[in-house]
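Field reference: sequence -> structure
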Amino acid sequence: MAKINILSEIICNRIAAGEVIDRPYSAVKEMIENSLDAGATEIEISIERGGKDLIRIVDNGCGIEKDDMRAAFFSHATSKISELEDIDNIRTLGFRGEALATIAAIARVEMISSVGNGEAWKVECDGDYIGKVMPAAFDKGTQITVRDIFFNTPVRRKFLKTDKKEETDITAFVTRYILGNPRVSFRYYVDGKLALQSYGGGLEEAIAQVYGANYLPQSFRICAERNDIRIYGFIGNQHFFKPNKSYQNVYLNGRCISNNVISTAVSHAYAPYAMKRNFPVYTLFIDVPAGMVDVNVHPNKADVRFADNQLIFGTVYKVVSSVLDGTAKAADFVVESTIVPEVRSTFADGGSKNAVCAADFTRLEKVYDKNFDDVNIPKFDADGKIKKGETPPRKAAADPDAPDLSVFERMESEHVEPKSASQLPPSRYFAPAEPTKMVVCGGIKPLPARVAEQARIKAEQERMAYESWKYRGNLFNTYLIYETGDEIYFIDQHAAHERIIFDSLIGKIKERASVPRQGMLIPYIIDLNAAEAAFVSDNLMLIRSLGFDIEPFGMTAFRINEIPLDLRDIDIKAFFGELLSDLDGLKSIKLHDVLRERIATVACKHAVKGGMELTEAERDKLVQMLKGDVGLKCPHGRPVCVKLTRQQIEKMFKRIV
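Structure field:
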């Protein structure tokens, strides 16, 4: 057996860096949390090349004493805890004492700090050593500069994302800290340019800075306390949804987290109002007793574990659903400003007392109620996931419109997102206009030769000599009936016409060198958050290739001046909502799938409808344009034609066995 070695502190820190500091955003996160724990009211963040070249955090916190400057870079050196019992009552964002040590192990770090006594001190670290404490010039607080992150671990640096993607992830974290600390002023610079700024004026101001002023009028401001759990913040109303989850923020005891129990509770509360691929919008603060939660779950501290998952789920679900449903237990809506409605909530049985939300969330009357008689709370395992077979919460029995959430519950518990149109099997979504080609962002991409040949043979086999068909009438002014030999064909006039229009539009796109555009009388402005804006910027040329004249309009907005002529009836909001639906997984954009969906919608709107009586000329023209291709499907996957043979009909009437 090989000799067992005791690893040096330097090697241990390099290994720990893979858990604590895996990418530049991790370093930014840890240093911002240190600044907040130091009581800073002003924090400035600067990055260059997505944090690869430079990360600088400057705060006006309490600072670090001279004698503690070098010790701050030692492993497990922290001012947050000192005894074993402190781990069970953690109120700070950081507590392990690993961040600075691991950052210093994989980057060139300079720290300048002053406690405000007229003296400032500086320490430099360079991967393998910690320098001496030297005099410096600084007012009060701490400035930490990190350069060349992962310079001495080239393997990890090689696997970093592009500068833009790293920048996007850092920006997403900065926005969460702005929202989570609305009384702290933030300034965020990207490559020398001011990208985000907040002034510490409160939650409304922070939300307006991050998401824009349109967020607030579409949201409810809530504040409630039950079962020793305090819930406050903003939730979108019953009609305010986004195409991805980047507008969902949860802060537990001041810590930004991503927790399945809470997110599932909110999602179930919104389920009766949300359409497919729409996600609720919320910025929620949840305060619980320290003994009710374990924050020491993972080095990145992004998730937590609750002592009672069912209690947390039931409380969050009850508060949010009561506000959305306007039930007897919900508060009356009180508008205290012209910006956003204020919510007064009653949660005691019988509704005898009100807990009125003030602007500062301080005038709050505790109401305790651990009975959730009208909520069917699912069982959770130790990791906060819904146990298989558990029933999700539903509306009270008195509500006849309560939806069946069994599918939704399964998707949440198994972390399965609703399938987009591009993920559905071809037979359920879209059959290519030609068997040998498919459209990709306005261009043509050949199918594999073997697949193309099989598709061509199948299409030829299903093509009929329609000239010999005899018209025998229609059913419900929707299904045209044709007879030929021993076979009867039922043609769905809407599906057939829809497919013909769809193929025509696709053909035009493939044949032309450029896409004709329709100018807009008033340009359409799309307001996005930082992550969505970066996503659109990365794919701007692809979007333009579809025929959209789109350009940046401010920091996170875009202006659309022209749209494709073939899609002049397009719902722009829905189009870009679908475009951004893959944002959470950072998947590659599939514009051709989105384009097909939009073209299919246009074809559906312009096709003849079921129940519409066709003239003889219209009927003959429709069948002629089908060219006997009875195997076609409409763009949404429904069959255009259904065949019945004489033998099948005689079996129905028991003439043959």
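Note: Residues 477 and 612 are 6 Å apart (CA to CA).
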